[in-house]
């Protein structure tokens, strides 16, 4: 049996055949030069391109590379959860494969955590000029909102590029989150933390796997998962709507008594549209929370592991929840045919 490594690097991957070779060429020298034992936990999130075949080929010459294949596409946070739950390292880092976050910073993260006995080291972006203006604006708005919702302990411009101690990972594993948002859950733990800064680079190749729709979904999950304020907002909007109705009723009575009422359609349309919008907004906010209750009541795991190459290395697998392992399939058989 092989002992657990000092560092595990979790890499969620989905259809990254264009960038995967460049990512491996930059990541491996950094990890080999640490002077510490390590594993790279590549979580294939149901890729449909040549990514599974490329990972299988890389494993033949890179013994520290471990491949976990999810049986279906579970999303970035689901793949990240699978990697965190099944990593063995004393420290666990997470990084995307698009090379926007530099692998070279992993060494600084590990050294900082070891030197100062930190449980969390965040990678904080100091320059996002490679992103579009719209992406920078929406990202800035998201972090400002999250700091108001969760607290000032949420680092500004810190995504999913971070390093966690084993104690932190164990805490996260115990949380009953159905839709975890780690960029908020990790600072919520309040464990000792530090930061390293870096300049965000352009995506090395391929296309972004985080379009506007997923950004909106992340924002909704972040808000509804950490605060009930939107429900209170619905209450305040309802009160505001009632106040407007009372004021309009008073105005109508006064004009009627003065015999100067000119009945038009504009005021009727405006009040109808206003009340309808408030009602729909309130129903939408309530629906988001009811949906979370519904999903939580179902109790379905947010990822399904179809294959884990750790079974071939002689390491005893940690019990991971949630996880369903129907069989340890042959990786070549699970890979798509080119």
From TrEMBL:
The residue ranges crossing the membrane are 233-257, 269-291
What's the domain of life for this entry?
A: Bacteria
Q: Which SUPFAM superfamilies match?
A: Nucleotide-diphospho-sugar transferases
Any Pfam family hit: Glycos_transf_2
Q: Enumerate the InterPro entries for this protein.
A: Glyco_trans_2-like (IPR001173), Glycosyltransferase_2 (IPR050256), Nucleotide-diphossugar_trans (IPR029044)
Q: Residue ranges of the Glycosyltransferase 2-like domain? A: 8-169
Q: What is this protein called?
A: Dolichol-phosphate mannosyltransferase
Q: Which organism is it from?
A: Catenuloplanes indicus
